Design the sequence.
């Protein structure tokens, strides 16, 4: 499995490099440099602002809230996103890493895992809605596009999956646990006890209004992600309307969801940006530059939260080792 993932990632990296040179490495580099430090800082600030929607959605899902919980979940979302993007070969996924990170701050692992799974489900539901919006815009701009049929079919299948998870929460939990156990034994252990998680899961789903609010919050977050793309294109000197940015970002997310098996979306993101941008008459080298600068932004935003997570893991390991040593000495 890991070898296949590595092969997909290597192929994606080669594809990205090929796109850069195919459409002019110098033009892509010039576009990247045209952003400047202030422009790059603006993109970082926009991404950090966008994460507020994501943290708020997770916050709404948690039944019992404590002081400082929003800040913890904000950091947990940053860890989840960075783990999925920059640690693609770990035996656990980004959502498991985020749940584990939050549990290190004192939240029970069962609650952290259950709320994470519900948050992932609500985000996926909002993503399907966002993709449908993008498809609608594409129908207006390019009613005869060859992308309409495959994307439409993919959105319908995704909508059915999201509806099943939301409608059958208990079954959804067990399906996720079984899939986690098949993908890697570490994920099943990292999510914690199935029985404890199921009780937390039931408590969360008893608050239907909070889940609906979380879905709407995630949808607002997806729309906000389009404004970040709009800003990136403008900083690179490409005029783009907000409706075009919405369509590009929505259809990009649909494409990345379909190609989930490529670690880090290597190459796929660059190719999707190039193809979708071209539909709306945007220069390909600018679209590739938008993808590359987005990766640089995500790296700057994601590395500090990951380092903090590793420090907390190290501190937790030392504490457990010290307790084990003290217990051993007391028994002797």
Sequence:
């Amino acid at each position: 499995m890991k070898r296949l993932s590595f092969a997909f990632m290597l192929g994606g990296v080669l594809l990205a490099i090929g796109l850069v040179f195919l459409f002019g490495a110098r033009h892509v580099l010039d576009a990247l440099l045209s952003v400047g430090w202030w422009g790059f800082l603006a993109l970082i600030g926009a991404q950090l602002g966008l994460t507020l929607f994501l943290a708020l959605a997770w916050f709404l899902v948690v039944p019992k809230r404590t002081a400082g919980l929003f800040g913890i979940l904000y950091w947990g979302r940053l860890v989840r996103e960075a783990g999925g993007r920059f640690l693609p070969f770990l035996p656990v996924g980004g959502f498991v890493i985020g749940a584990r990170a939050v549990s290190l701050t004192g939240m029970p692992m069962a609650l952290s895992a259950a709320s994470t799974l519900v948050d992932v489900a609500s985000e996926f539901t909002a993503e399907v809605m966002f993709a449908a919006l993008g498809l609608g815009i594409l129908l207006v701009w390019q009613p005869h596009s060859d992308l309409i049929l495959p994307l439409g079919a993919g959105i319908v299948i995704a909508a059915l999956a999201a509806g099943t998870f939301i409608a059958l929460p208990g079954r959804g939990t067990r399906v996720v646990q079984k899939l986690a156990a098949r993908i890697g034994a570490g994920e099943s252990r990292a999510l914690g006890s199935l029985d404890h998680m199921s009780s937390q899961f039931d408590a969360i789903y008893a608050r239907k209004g909070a889940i609906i609010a979380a879905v709407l919050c995630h949808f607002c977050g997806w729309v906000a992600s389009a404004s970040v793309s709009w800003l990136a294109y403008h900083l690179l000197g490409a005029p783009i309307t907000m409706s075009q940015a919405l369509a590009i970002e929505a259809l990009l997310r649909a494409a990345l969801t379909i190609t989930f098996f490529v670690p880090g979306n290597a190459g796929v993101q660059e190719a999707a940006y190039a193809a979708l941008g071209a539909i709306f008459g945007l220069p390909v080298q600018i679209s590739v530059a938008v993808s590359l600068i987005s990766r640089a932004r995500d790296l700057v935003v994601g590395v500090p939260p990951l380092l903090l997570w590793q420090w907390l893991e190290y501190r937790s390991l030392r504490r457990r080792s010290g307790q084990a040593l003290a217990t051993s000495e007391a028994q002797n």
Summary: Residues 2-317 form one domain. The chain has 14 helices and no strands.
